[in-house]
Structure formats: structure tokens, C-alpha cells
Amino acid sequence: MSSRNNSKTGLSGMLAMVTLLALAACTGDAKPVKGFVLPQGDIAQGEQVFVDFNCHGCHTIPEKEFPQTEFEPPFILELGGEVYRVKNYGELLTAIVNPDHIISLKYRAMLEQANREAIISPMPYYGEEMTVAELIDLVEFLHAQYTKLQPQYYRG
Q: Among candidates 155, 134, 132, which has minimal Cα distance to 48?
């Protein structure tokens, strides 16, 4: 009977260990997106890429100061900040590599107010200029600018 209890204890311990490992993999900080994984980027280098490619000319980030640009865009879109759903690495990468993939709802609303129509994104294509290392650093920097909010549910 004691060997049976030991095997149950061993099985329970193993099940608890597997459960803990599975829960650890479910954190919101994980980079993988259905088989898509980027190497670790450098946030400081990514901020420099943001400035070098003049992203700050059309985008702002809460509590970040950037140098002035030589041009005046029709609209400024805010990136980062407090959100209920943080964009994953795949979404950020796609937005940079293929800006026409999805045109931001914020941007569409701004165009509607100005009685303008958006067919393609005004964001330039940097596929010929940006290195893979710069792209990885930029995605790391952008991802770090978001703070995930926890929804407040009514408990009445």
C-alpha cells in the first residue's frame, strides 16, 4: 500500500511541476506568437532607430521627448501608453515592414474629421534601408512603451 501512495505522491508532484511550467509560459511578457520568435533586442538602440528613421515626426510616445523634425505631418499618432491589449512582437513587426497591412483606426478617424480618405498608409517603406538588427531593436523599443491595464470588472 505504501508503494501505491508513493507513486500517487510522485504523480501528483510531477503534475504540479508540469502545471507550474505551463503557467509560467502563459505570462504576458513572452515573445512567441504561434511559432514566431524574435531575438532579444536593445531598447536604447531601438529608441535611436526610432529617431534615426524620423518615426518621431509622425508618432509620439507618452512621456518621451524627441528632437524636432524638419517636416510637419498632417496628423500625429500616439504609440504606447496604457492599453488593455498590448500589441505583440509579430503585430509591431508587421506594422513596420508592411505599413499598408492595417491602417490604424485612430488614423482613419482623423482622416474622416479632415474629410480625407485613406487608401494606403502614409508611413514610408523601410525594407531597403533598415537592417534586421535595427528592426529587432525598434520592435523591442516599441513593445516596451506599452503598459497593460487590467480591466475593472463590476462585482456587485
A: 134
**Phi-psi region at 135: left, alpha or beta (left = phi > 0; alpha = psi -120 to 50):** alpha
In this structure, are residues 92 and 144 in contact, taking their beta carbons and an 8 Å threshold?
no
- Count of CA atoms in the C-beta half-sphere (13 A) of 25: 9
Q: Rounded to the nearest 10 degrees, what angle do helices 132-144 and 89-97 cross at?
A: 130
Residues ≥6 apart with Cβ < 8 Å to 142? 46, 50, 79, 80, 87, 92
When the pLDDT of each residue in the chain is averaged and rounded to a whole number, the result is 78
26, 29, 33, 38 alpha-carbon torsion, rounded to 10°: -140
Nearest Cα to Cα of residue 130 among 122, 121, 139: 139
Summarised one tens digit per residue, pLDDT across range 5-19 is 444 444 444 434 433
Please enumerate, as own/partner, the contacts of 107-110 that have beta carbons within 8 Å and a separation of 24 or more. 107/75, 107/77, 110/75, 110/77
How far apart CA 117 and CA 43 sit, in angstroms, is 35
- Helix, strand, coil % over all residues of the chain, rounded to 5: 45, 10, 50
Cell of 53: 528613421
User: For residue 95, which of 42, 59, 41 has the smallest C-alpha distance?
Assistant: 59
